[in-house]
Amino acid sequence: MVHVPKLTRADATAALRNPLAFVADRWTPDPRTVRRAALTALVMSVIIVVTGGAVRLTGSGLGCPTWPTCTDDSLTTTRAMGFHGVIEFGNRMLTYVLCAAVGWAIVAARAEKPRRRSLTRLGWAQFWVVMGNAVLGGIVVLVGLNPYTVAAHFLLSSALIAIGTLMWQRTREGDGASRPLVGKAVQQLVWFLVAASVLLIAVGTVVTGAGPHAGDSSEVERIPIDWETVSKLHAVLAWIVVTLTFALWFVLKAVDAPEGPPNRTRELFLVLLGQGVIGYVQYFTHLPEVLVGAHMLGSCLVWIWVLRVLLSLRERPGAALGLPGPAADVAVGTHA
């Protein structure tokens, strides 16, 4: 039997004053636990995007017509609200699961020894983005699914994914000074790739706001732009991202870069290939809901892998923290 020390009044007071410090004083997580906690938060940030898309694609965006309660008289959905109420309220409940995942990442990062303030800050950054996006989600409902607020809601989710990706990467690195693995010309090319990807995601939200899936069966305002025209612009930007990725892979091979950047770039190209196939099929089949949902998932994965390419361009010493070596990093990247 493991001896469990008694909780004294002083312990209880300390726990109330600073619960994170109280846990950190009594628990040291394995580095793998911290990495898994960060990955769990990242996965949940993707899941909440996909389920949010399901709300829109099933026309359940106003299944709960008000916020923060579901109706004026009920905190939860009612039987009279039917399927749409269940879908919308279920997505709201997933926000609590996301908060729990982010909270777990914060606790694990705070308890790690030696203490790494950079990880804790990234965890708290995710928490505040989640809170802000929850409020913005409520505003989306209160303004009747205004397409501009819906676009902002998705862009803030993309910011959450970016922070989650960075935290996951940092859990597998040390806190030493960053050392570039490639030259400035290659770094500039990757930043062009990142900028093009941001523009691609932003234009994608315009496609959504102008397209036929308004999110509810009632008359919902759409962005006053021809949907097919903006879709073609979106496709052009996608081809620019693909071209930059292909060029980057050749450049990395030509300069004989370490295996990390070329591997991440190759993975990004494969993700882009799958996303492109889904995008063109959904366009020519008049946007079936299942393919639109798959395209939203693909958008998240493209963004994550673009950031992974960017983060692979440097390394930070991590041997003292028991972090995995290059071989393990490649394995994690392959199975992520």
Order of helices and strands: HHHHHHEHHHHEH
Q: Give the CA-CA distance, first to last residue.
A: 37 Å
Please tell me the overall pLDDT. 88
DSSP, total strands: 2
Profile the largest sheet: 2 strands, antiparallel
Return the structural class.
mainly alpha
What brief labels describe this structure?
336 residues, mainly alpha, two-stranded antiparallel sheet, 1% strand, disordered C terminus
Structure in words:
The chain has helices spanning 9-17, 19-26, 31-57, 82-111, 117-142, 147-171, 184-210, 227-254, 260-284, 289-311, 326-335, and strands at 179-180, 314-315. With 336 residues, the protein is mostly helical. The protein has a two-stranded antiparallel ribbon. α3 packs antiparallel against α4, α3 (31-57) packs antiparallel against α10 (289-311) and α8 packs antiparallel against α9. Residues 319-336 have low confidence and may be disordered.
